[in-house]
Amino acid sequence: MKNGSKPSKALLRQIEEQGQELAYLQRKCKEHGIPILILVEGLSAAGKGTLINRIIQPLDPRGFKVSCIASPNRDEQLRPFLWRFWNRTPSTGRIAIFDRSWYRNLLDADIDNRMSEAGLARAYVDVRAFERQLRDGGTIILKFFLDITQQEQAARLAALQANPATAWRVDDAVLQRLGRYKEYTQAVTRMFKESDVDAPIPWVKLKAKNSYLATATAQKMMIEVLGKRVRLAKGRGISVPKPANPKPMPRYDKAPKLSDVDLSQTLSKKEYLKIVEEKQTRIHDLHHEMYRRRIPMVMVYEGWDAAGKGGNIRRLTARMDPRGYEVIPVAAPNDIEKSHHYLWRFWSEFPKAGHVAIYDRSWYGRVLVERVEGFCKEWEWKQAYREINEMEENFVNFGAVMVKFWIHIDQDEQLKRFKARELNPSKRWKLGEEDWRNREKWKPYEKATNDMFLRTHTSYAPWTIIEGNCKRFARIRALDTVIEAIEKRFAE
Fold it and tell me: What pLDDT is stored for residue 244 in this prediction?
């Protein structure tokens, strides 16, 4: 049966019955909060739109979104290539369908030699990590590839060109891809090989010539995978299953420890005032040069309550151009953020090339607050170390400068600052019951912090522990660290 000819009644009945089953599973996935991501790839004229249309026909249109992935726009080009896809990942209970995906970038880069061999290999590493993180966060990922012969592709493109209503779809780029059919099929073979490593659900290859049979096959796979997850969620009462083969936690033996920090270091007010403006001016100049060179920067501020993060950030940004940086205060996730992978909200705030993002608390809440307070399961915070390292490596591979601060104070200094806040009406709002409650858990937080250093003190994103008992010393230390990091980046 040729594409477009009338299918058999049996096949149409199968598609209709499977569609009804998918509609039922969509409702159940929504009920259990299971996010679904469907990728549809294929060469030009393979029938991606037709397949997507037939898949979604029986579904509730309020529960899915179809994204047609074109070449990245200017804003997207100024960020890591996975940024725009993170922003489109589905929330709990919803379906995201991509007409082309991140693989389009990699296929085109492979064919056009826009990446070195090492760069392309690294990009596939990033993609595998991205998909694994989504899967570990509970997202079902299905990947369909419509396979089309060169003869069939040429015939379909000719038909599109002959129709005034569709001729616009066949531009020079599409014809060039047809002429390089063999190269694309080789790149696709590599894509299968690279992206199916450790993937529990490999690519599903569909024959594009018979669009109805392709639809039935795709539906059958969706029913199998979604049905299995729904049964698991119903039987165990969980929507996010524990990974079957968790990877070992990373370890960096040269990581710093809180016990090694000398908190007696101080700086007099006279010395501080003598040097602070000079260093702020240097930051100002470096900030402008980073914008000129289109280098993004990500800064993370973590530390004890009342350690002085806010004051430190104010001195850091005192002479920076406010149009070129943003301070992002991180609190407990809201309902929208909770419905996505926990890294989603941090990816969405990644700065444009040439800009600076300063996180006042960060993704490390996963292995600090959420660990200590029991807001996530043990296996979730343990796997977060690797996920965080991968995300930061992705940032650095894009060209970002990464600086991570932990501002350290001792318990006596914290108590002193808490009492000072109680007595100061203008600062009393900074102190709440949660601060006192966290203080009672100093030891668990201290252990979690040292573990965080041990697992995430990477060569590309190392931690800097700031001696914070003296606020003036801490501010100058932070300024010096930022200056050094930027100058090191310029020297590369």
Answer: 77
Strands, sheet with 64-68, edge to edge from the N-terminal-most edge strand: 64-68, 95-99, 36-42, 140-147, 204-207
Q: Would you say the C-alpha torsion 457, 459, 461, 465 has a positive or negative sign?
A: positive
| pLDDT score of 246 | 81
pLDDT at residue number 66: 97
Predicted local distance difference test score (pLDDT) of residue 2: 47
Would you state the CATH architecture of domain 9-236? Answer: 3-Layer(aba) Sandwich (3.40)
Q: Which CATH number fits domain 258-491: 2.60.120.820, 3.40.50.300, 3.40.50.11540, 3.30.40.10?
A: 3.40.50.300
Kind of pairing, strands 297-303 and 140-147? Answer: unpaired
Q: What is the pLDDT of residues 30-68, one digit of tens each?
A: 999 999 999 999 999 999 999 999 999 999 999 999 999
Condensed to tens digits (0 to 9), the pLDDT of residues 406-431 reads 999 999 999 999 999 988 888 888 88
pLDDT for the residue numbered 5: 65
Q: What is the pLDDT of residue 4?
A: 53
Q: Which of 335, 333, 301 is nearest to 403 (CA)?
A: 301
Contacts of 10 (CB under 8 A, 6+ apart): none
**Buried residues in 105-117 as b, exposed as e (16+ CB within 10 A):** bbbbbbeeeebee
User: Rounded to whole angstroms, how far apart are CA atoms 354 and 336?
Assistant: 29
Indicate yes or no: pTM above 0.90.
yes
Pairing status of strand 325-329 against strand 297-303 = unpaired
Residues 6+ apart with CB under 8 A from 417: 306, 409
Residue with tokens 């073979």: 189
pLDDT at 3 (0 to 100): 53
Q: Which residues of the chain have pLDDT under 70?
A: 1-5
pLDDT at 429: 86
Q: Where are the domains of the chain?
A: 9-236, 258-491
Task: Say yes or no: do domains 9-236 and 258-491 share a fold.
Answer: yes
Q: What does the pLDDT read at residue 437?
A: 87
